[in-house]
Design brief:
Helix content: 25-40%
Distance between the termini: 24 Å
Number of strands: 25
Strand order of the largest sheet: 8-7-19-20-21-18-24
Radius of gyration: 23 Å
Number of helices: 17
Oligomer: single chain
Shape: globular
Largest sheet: 7 strands, mixed
Strand content: 15-25%
Length: 552
């Protein structure tokens, strides 16, 4: 039995911990905060409950597989999963709206024809068929297998089979980015373009530079569907935490790792503060005790381990290694920048209307202005942002049927104008971890995000016309809260092929023997499904060794 130290209690780290524990290893998770789940935060107040990270689940098969292989009870035995219908409502800048059904490509085509005009559905369906080819070509190496040593092949080969546009006496044009797919293959129709580019924007990607292989993002959603979790996405984190405990994984909350100990080129343990045992309640609940032999060193104690699994961002990993290189020079370099998000939590009086969609994308009427603000030389907050409005029909999220809990999210830079973004929450007393400030009304928003929160609220009114009259209070959560929950303000994007490797993430193995990385900043990148797969890959590399070739 190997002794394994896991740094962080995010979803990827817990997925790895559960799989390693069921393989017979002794696993201890060191978490600097007071709870588990990483980005899957939860906020409760006045009987309302909100997800502060992802709200809906894609590719639930990843977590079904995890629960099947780590215990007796299946994922559905632990929590309720429901396919949302429609999958999404789009409200375009010109006022056109369309509801797209869940996991029905034929239904999507019919809906687009009805809303955008004859031929729209056919063009979109032809695009999704080509996206399926990109998925088939990239699924194994970009999701189910450890990153190839010859990763340059993934960096140089574009899996998306773009359709050449022939021109008289001129060189033919072929789409290499999502924006070019919209222009060359979707007829330049502005609403189809907005529909496609929203997938890039939601992942923190500039559609003008995101490779054509990003076509797999809409393909995954429209093929495998979107699912809500009863009680909110936090219930998924809770279920995974309980599965880890069932497999005798020990959690050390309130115990930040100060250093990863490297000796002779190999990770041999982690250094924590002397006397750091986490909170007494958490330790008693989780089983407590040190990970292994404890040796004094440099004002800290070193808890020895045979393997270390780090679920942290690249800059945090570098600081823990104290000058020891994390990556081989020939490997994929770490991504150190990413966009973030602002989330509004809206408590409304009045029942949720039955015609409300679970998810509505309210598109900006100013595409160029939004992209310039987000991806310009000095990133800033868009004047007219695209927002996503979530309105789930889950009675556990509200105090009674005569109220509604709504979240509104927008993609923003992790920093603006070279300055780290600040956080705010408004509307009165808070009962969890949000920062609160006094206000004179439900919309009062002191701080640097005040006007942006108002602009997001204005966009949400396009989907909820009676918002002002129903609003009890609003809280605003910014990249500062993202950083508090995950250790970094940025939200990593999923790995994508082509583009010279710019959108790949580093391998799960590192330059130090016995040290592995897990989670959104490592292969296969950001997103809940990808985090779960990273846990499977790390567990496979430790259990089966470097010859591990991925899930079968």
């Amino acid at each position: 039995m190997a002794r394994i130290a896991v740094i962080g209690a995010g979803m990827g780290a817990m997925a790895a911990a559960a799989r390693l524990a069921v393989a017979g290893h002794g696993v201890v998770v060191y978490e600097r905060g007071a709870t588990h789940g990483g980005a899957l935060g939860h906020r409760t107040r006045d009987g309302f409950a909100f997800d502060t990270g992802p709200v809906l689940l894609t590719l639930p098969a990843v977590y079904r597989d995890l629960f099947v292989k780590t215990g007796r009870k299946s994922l559905e035995d632990r929590l309720g999963l429901t396919q949302v219908e429609p999958a999404v409502r789009h409200l375009f800048g010109d006022g056109t709206r369309v509801d797209l059904p869940n996991a029905s490509r034929a239904g999507v085509g019919r809906a687009l024809d009805a809303a955008l005009g004859a031929g729209s559905g056919e063009r979109w369906a032809a695009f999704v068929n080509r996206a399926r080819e990109a998925w088939d070509r990239s699924r194994r190496p970009l999701l189910e297998e450890p990153l190839w040593p010859n990763w340059q092949v993934l960096a140089e080969r574009e899996p998306y089979p773009a359709v050449p546009r022939r021109r008289l006496l001129r060189r033919e044009l072929t789409a290499t980015t999502l924006a070019e797919i919209a222009a060359l293959e979707l007829g330049g129709e502005p609403r189809l373009r907005a529909l496609l580019e929203q997938y890039a924007l939601a992942a923190g990607l500039d559609p003008r530079t995101a490779p054509a292989s990003a076509a797999v993002l809409p393909y995954m959603e429209q093929t495998f569907g979107l699912w809500s979790v009863e009680g909110g996405m936090r219930a998924l984190a809770d279920a995974l935490y309980e599965r880890c405990r069932e497999r005798r994984v020990r959690f050390r909350f309130g115990t930040p790792v100060r250093r990863i100990v490297i000796r002779g080129g190999r990770a041999v343990g982690v250094a924590v503060d002397a006397g750091a045992e986490g909170t007494a309640a958490a330790q008693a609940e989780a089983g407590g005790g040190p990970a292994a032999t404890v040796v004094g060193e440099g004002g800290h104690v070193v808890e020895e381990a045979d393997y270390v699994v780090a679920g942290v961002a690249p800059d945090v990993l570098d600081s823990l290694l104290d000058g020891v290189p994390a990556r081989e020079e020939t490997g994929v370099p770490a991504q150190r920048t990413a966009l973030s998000r602002v989330t509004l939590l809206l408590a409304l009086r009045g029942a949720r209307p039955p015609e409300a969609a679970c998810r509505t994308v309210v598109h900006t009427p100013d595409r160029e202005g939004e992209l310039a603000a987000l991806f310009g030389a000095e990133p800033g907050l868009p004047e007219r942002p695209t927002v996503t409005v979530h309105r789930l029909p889950d009675p556990s999220l509200v105090p009674d049927p005569d109220h509604e809990a709504v979240t509104v999210t927008a993609t923003v830079p992790a920093t603006t104008g070279g300055t780290a973004t600040g956080g705010e929450a408004t509307g009165g007393a808070a009962d969890d971890d949000a920062v609160s400030a006094p206000s004179s009304g439900p919309l009062a928003s002191p701080g640097p995000f005040a006007s942006f929160a108002d602009r997001m609220t204005a966009a949400a009114r396009r989907e909820i016309p009676d918002l002002d009259g129903r609003l009890l209070w609003r809280e605003v959560r910014t990249p500062r809260e993202v950083e508090a929950a995950t250790g970094t303000a940025g939200v990593p994007a999923p790995a994508l092929a082509a583009g010279g490797g710019r959108w790949l993430h580093p391998a799960n193995s590192t330059a130090a023997a016995g040290l592995f990385t897990v989670g959104g900043w490592s292969h296969p990148g950001g997103g809940l499904a990808h985090a779960g797969m990273s846990g499977a890959l790390v567990a496979g590399l430790i259990v089966e060794g470097p010859d591990f070739r991925g899930s079968q």
